Amino acid sequence: MGLKCGIVGLPNVGKSTLFNALTSARALAANYPFATKEPNIGMITVPDPRLEELAKLIRPKAVIPTTIEIVDIAGLIKGASQGEGLGNQFLANIREVDAILHVVRCFDNDNVIHVDGSISPVRDKEIIDTELLLKDLETVEKRLDRLRKQAKSGNKEDARLVELGDRIYQSLEQGIPARTLSLDKDSQALVDSMFLLTAKPILYVCNVDEGSVVSGNGHTRAFAEAVAHEKAGIILISAAIEAEITELEDPDERALFLEEMGLSELGVNRVIREAYALLNLITYFTAGEKEVRAWTITKGTLAPQAAGVIHSDFEKGFIRAEVIPFAEFIRLGSEAAVKEAGKMSVEGKEYVVRDGDVMHFRFNV
């Protein structure tokens, strides 16, 4: 399944630097607004130690991790919802992504200019929130106009949708992002059909200085307090330092650098995993001598649909799934040993795939 996360934020907060650290691509990272005009796109692998453990046991010809597409979107300014700066382009790019990585600047550095002249991550976040809310209000208003015209026919369903739409509009007008609304099933369906920008899941990435990457600082504490009510994650990262570390090719040098920083792993790995979880995704594996591979599905996916991620024929002709829990595969050391111990289950069409399942599908087309 194609998954896409968009990196957003005001100009000069570290979006392109983070993108460079996340991907093997090299976006322009410059000290002036709108250094990024067209969105940079890169594919990143989702770090998963389980894939490596399976590969050590099986020794396949290929090891293929699952991936997420990352988009570095042009910086936003006030008035974007009215087309200011690169507003229209920015908002169109956001509409195309599945989740948002919102970078906020939480470091002081006189050599790196800020578009508003001072450092305030809470204010910066509110600027973007306002522009997204204004665009969503415009979207909802257009839909309501159509629904009101339809409701004139006396259709009760249309009238009910108008009522739901009015409630959603009023909430947005009060500055409440769509993702934080407590909605019933019908209201959620209406929100989903409008593809609202503020309905997208979000992870806040606080870009800090080197000394604040472990414990944060005054900026990050104020920011965390401001977003405590939201359904959103927060992660601290020093994008500049991460970009430096990823330039090091020697694993030992990387490990030493991380140790000196007081970190156990790259911050970008945490960003990727958090983004993955943000989208309510899990991983299952296929494992054989040809390849060991990770596959991405949404939590709650049934076995036939999980098989369809590999190939549509697998879903159409699904017969059964042979399932080995990851922990049992590692404990027993091989598929043959798992079968001998009776730890492989045979599952049908109603089986809900679990994170870490090692699967083999039987199908007939």
Describe the protein in words.
By secondary structure, the protein is of the alpha/beta class. Helix content is 42%, strand content 19%. The chain is built from 14 helices and twelve strands. The strands form three sheets. A six-stranded mixed sheet has the order 2-4-1-5-6-7, sandwiched between helices. A three-stranded mixed sheet has the order 3-9-8, sandwiched between helices. Strands 11-10-12 form a three-stranded antiparallel sheet. α7 links the parallel β6 and β7. α1 runs parallel beside α8, α4 packs antiparallel against α5 and α5 crosses α6. The longest helix has 31 residues. The radius of gyration is 23 Å and the shape is flat. It starts with a strand and ends with a strand. About 4% of the residues have low confidence.
Order of helices and strands: EHEHEEHEHHHEHEHHHEEHHEHHEE
Structural class: alpha/beta
What is the strand arrangement across the widest sheet?
Answer: 2-4-1-5-6-7
Helix content: 40-55%
DSSP E strands, number: 12
Radius of gyration of CA atoms, rounded to a whole number: 23 Å
Instruction: Report the sheet-strand fraction.
Output: 15-25%
Low-pLDDT runs: 25-37
Cα distance spanning the termini: 22 Å
Shape: flat
